[in-house]
Amino acid sequence: MKLNSWAMTGLLVMAALSPATQAAELIQNGGFESHGADVYDITGWQVAEQGFFGGVLAQTGTSTEATANATVGAYQGSYYGILDNYGYASNALFQTFSTGAVSSATLSFQMFVNNQNSTTNIDAAGLDYSVDATDNPNQHVRVDILKAGADPFSIDSADVVQSLYIGGANGVLTANNYVNYSFDLSSSLAAGGSYILRFATVANQNSLQLGVDNISLNAVSSVPEADSVAMLLAGLGLMAGVVRRRRS
After folding, report:
1. CA separation for the pair 158, 28 (Å, rounded)
2. What average pLDDT does this structure show over 81-95?
3. Distance of alpha carbon 240 from its chain centroid, rounded?
4. Please, what is the end-to-end C-alpha distance for the chain in angstroms?
5. Nearest CA among 109, 113, 122, 212 for reference residue 172
6. pLDDT at res. 197
7. What are phi and psi of 138, to 5 degrees?
8. pLDDT greater than 90 at residue 125
9. Measuring CA to CA, which residue among 173, 195, 27, 33 is closest to residue 114?
10. Sequence-distant (≥ 6) Cβ neighbours of residue 127 within 8 angstroms
11. What is the pLDDT of residues 3-16, one digit of tens each?
12. pTM more than 0.90
């Protein structure tokens, strides 16, 4: 069976518009293994610390460096990220990432939360440790996607693209095991752009630790292949030539 020029061009257009799936990992050093030593300057990540006592670092072992509280250690490998608050402090571990338009995006990580206070307290002040500790107890953690450029402690709706976790200890008060988390970010990242992945803690009652490991953000984009686009342009040129000949 022979195809006329219109049918051939139609096939070329369909081929060019068929997307090529491309997957990309958007998070750097999600396993915290880049250093081979306990470090406060973590490759790929930024840190913000406010208050009186605590710290954010990539560490090994099962005892936090700032408060000497027990943890379960790394989820895999030797190192994990730890946000360690003694009280009257806020800490944030965050990373800015960029992506083009995506058809799907999935964030996954393992996280534990240890809370040496007997209760979890989520105050309207968000990540502000300085609110009155008697009338406004504030002892919890957050995980969010923020717009690029947002303050690392912001909870403003204009800055928060998607909230993923707001709460406290995932079990007993201390030395909790990791919990597996997975979130569909397809809608939030659909248009592409620059964003921030933030892990944050606030405490004005007692010590609090957030441990995280094995962080991955896998995004799948759909883009036309370069050779398919070339086929489309060639097909359109062929069709235009045929039309001109028929008119003459």
Report:
1. 26
2. 96
3. 48
4. 27
5. 113
6. 99
7. -145, 100
8. yes
9. 173
10. 90, 92, 142, 153, 155, 200, 201, 202
11. 555 454 454 444 44
12. no
Residue 4, Cα to own-chain centre: how many angstroms?
50
- 198-208 residue pLDDT tens: 999 999 999 99
Interatomic CA distance for residues 60 and 117, integer angstroms: 24
Residue 229 host element (H or E): helix 226-247
Q: What is the mean pLDDT of residues 135-164?
A: 98
Phi-psi region of 206 (alpha: psi -120 to 50; beta: other; left: phi over 0): beta
Cα–Cα distance between 165 and 27 in angstroms, integer? Answer: 18
In the chain the beta strands, taken as DSSP E runs, fall at 20-25, 46-51, 54-59, 80-85, 89-99, 104-115, 139-147, 160-167, 179-184, 193-203, 208-223
DSSP 8-state code for residue 158? T
3-class SS letters over 44-106: CCEEEEEECCEEEEEECCCECCCCCCECCCCCCCCCEEEEEECCCEEEEEEEEEEECCCCEEE
Q: Give pLDDT tens digits for 210-239.
A: 999 999 999 999 665 444 444 544 554 545
Helices 226-247, 5-17: crossing angle, 10 deg rounding? 160
